[in-house]
Amino acid sequence: MVLTRHLRIGKPLRLDPDSMSGEYIRIVLLCLLAGLLVAAAVTDIRSRIISNRLNIAIACLAPLYWLASGLPAWPDMALQVALGIGIFGIFAFLFALGMMGGGDVKLLAAVALWFPWQALTLLLVIMALLGGIVTLVTVIHHKVNKRVGQPEVPYGVAISLAAIWLVGERILYQFA
Fold first, then answer.
1. What does the buried/exposed string (b/e) look like for 19-31 if buried means 16 or more CB atoms within 10 Å of the residue's CB?
2. 138 close to 151: Cβ distance less than 8 angstroms
């Protein structure tokens, strides 16, 4: 097995991003992220709640992805953490204004840890477009079923789909 040479007793575990095992680890981590994003979207649709455990799992897997990708601690890993904190701050403000749910904010901050700022910008654009569609569908569904009160928009669906789009690109680029 390719990983056994990295797991010898007394030797530190080192993920070599240029090795075949580093490439497999990146793909596995991206697939795990996609699975967690699907779970977030499904739970958001069903209950309008995104579990803190799910958000923590997404955030905790990001550093493993950074290591497998060969990101240096400074400045790249530090920048990823800053992006996550910045996104959390911006969208926590929207939460305070009642424009987003808390789970959505935490999901977006956790996802921000996975992508460089250029891809994160694309994610936000795709998320906004998909969010408009999700909002429209939710409002129509709310009116057709003659429900009382304001509709709760499962914005985690838009966040998850936008992130899955970027994950898919990264997986496909592995084989290009």
1. bebbeebbeebbe
2. yes
> Quick one: pLDDT at residue 173?
82
Q: Is residue 1 part of a domain?
A: no
Distance between CA atoms of residues 163 and 156, nearest Å: 10
Radius of gyration over every alpha carbon of the chain, rounded to an integer in angstroms:
18
For residue 53, CA distances in Å to 39, 80, 148 come to 11, 21, 31
Residue 95 lies in a domain: yes
Q: Which of 29, 25, 1 is nearest to 14 (CA)?
A: 25
Domain contains 4: no
The answer to whether residue 3 sits within a structural domain is no
What's the total number of domains in the chain? 1
Q: What is the pLDDT of residues 92-105, one digit of tens each?
A: 999 999 999 999 99
Contact 17, 127 (CB under 8 A): no
Q: How confident is the model at residue 175 (pLDDT cuts 50, 70, 90)?
A: confident
Instruction: End-to-end CA distance of the chain: give it in Å, rounded.
Output: 25
Domain ranges, residue 147: 17-174
